[in-house]
Amino acid sequence: MKRLAYIKAIVGLFAAFLLIQGCKVGEKYQQPDLNLPDQFRGDTLAYFGDTSSISRISWKEFFHDPTLKDLIDSALTYNYDMRTAMKNIDIANKWMRQNRFNYLPEVDATIAGVNKQYRSKEFGSGPSTRWYDRKGTKAPENMFTYTSQFGTEIGFSWEIDIWGKISNAKDQLTAEYLNTQEARNAIQTNLIASVAKGYFNLLMLDAKIEVAKRNLQLNDSTLQMIKLQYAAGEITALAIQQTESQRLLAASLVPELEKDIVLQENALRILIGQMPGEIKRGTSFEHLFAENKDISLGSPVEIVRNRPDVRGAEWSLVAANANANIQQAMRYPSLSLEGVFGVNSMLPKNWFSIPGSLLGGIGGNLTAPIFKNKKLKIQWEVAKLERDKAEIAFQQTVLEAVSEVSDAVVTVEKLREQLDFARQRVENSDKAVRNANLLFKGGYATYLEVITAQGNALNSDLDLVELRQAHLESYVDLYRSLGGGWR
Question: Mind listing the pLDDT tens digit for each residue in 246-271?
């Protein structure tokens, strides 16, 4: 009868478990309303076309320079931030895999257990350093009895996931794992952009040195011509001095640019995880990648699905939502099953005397927190506030991402217009230099007009080089802001 009652109690616990199994607590995650616009500000289909989004183009297809591709490939392999991100992914993956075993019972084994107890009929304790009773009489040894237990057993404990603590922990760990993936993707997109910009800056510095050296040769030619006129008594020494100053200005640019080149090369080598050294050059400054007009920005909704930092912010929100559910479930009763199986005996010789020494038992516990100094309630309320903070951060990330794309679109378009004016300015400056030299030789222009024209030409060439670099970087910023580069 006792055994039947015991079995009924266990069955009752399982029945209770089945009844409340569907009573999951907490809120299922739902993406908040992001209030996204229909298109990015500044996006014009007439300019960008409407076929495929830039963000879905692989970086190997977006960039055309083989040298730049090699640099990016090395950076993705050896960059220390990327390597650290990969370790974070491995760590999160191990925690996520461990959570799968939380649905199984915990099993412990006692390999060899020995328990010896002293009991007395007249004295209240076993043997100690004081062997006297209250009257000072020494306690005789035969007043004590000894009880021994020798056993080997296996025990298990299994908490039933009634309120979804384990399943929500799984959701939390999965979200954190995916967040590490997105963190790695975000590092990759930023790393690709940094390498590309560094390489563009290196080519820009090379182009500037060529401009400075070309202008220096022009100044040398002009200086020789002025010296001849000075020898003929046609002009004063002031003309030589001012022309020499113009020549020195162009000459001083060369060592400054050479210094900047070395610094940029070292910075690029750090990005690719290598010691300082030279960086070889590839394609010319003007043909790094083709400007494809048959591409589009896509819609702002695609940012949520494609941009790593936005996706990571949403996974943080999912994890915070799961944690709030866990903290809520901690306030409810928990159901666990426990059991033990092994051998136990009073004497060592009967330790493994089977079946007489067999020991077994199974039981269930339904426990509920009563008074925890409001810790559980406060933890739940704080978790809900953390979830609200994660939602705010997610919405802010989306807002900044959409604004960043709009900024990049306008920058690309306006730099294109500036480039057109800069090219016209360079053409006009070159004509001015040629005409000034011809007029000076014919006596219709002064030396000041010649060096002024040469100074304007130098500035125009340098400005054009800088605008070309800025225009290339604006395409990279647009590509990165749309989430391109991690695929």
Answer: 788 888 888 999 999 999 999 999 99
Structure tokens at 316: 């943080």
Give, rounded to a whole angstrom, the gap between the first and last alpha carbons of the chain. Answer: 68
Task: Report which secondary-structure segment, H or E, holds 367.
Answer: strand 358-367
Based on the number of CB atoms within 10 Å of its own CB, is 485 exposed (0-12), middle (13-18) or buried (19 or more)? Answer: buried
Asked if the model's pLDDT at residue 51 lies above 60, the reply is no
Beta bridge partners of 155: 108, 340
Decide: 217 and 457 in contact? Cβ < 8 Å: no
CA distance linking residue 271 with residue 225, whole number of Å: 49
Q: Which of the residue ranges 18-22, 164-168, 358-362 would you say has the lowest mean pLDDT?
A: 18-22
Alpha helices in 160-307 (DSSP H): 165-231, 237-271, 300-306
User: Which element (helix H / strand E) includes 359?
Assistant: strand 358-367
Q: Which tens digits make up the pLDDT trace of 193-220?
A: 999 999 999 999 998 998 888 888 877 7
Cα of 246 vs its chain's centroid, Å: 50
Q: DSSP 3-state helix, strand, coil percentages of the chain (rounded to 5)?
A: 65, 10, 25
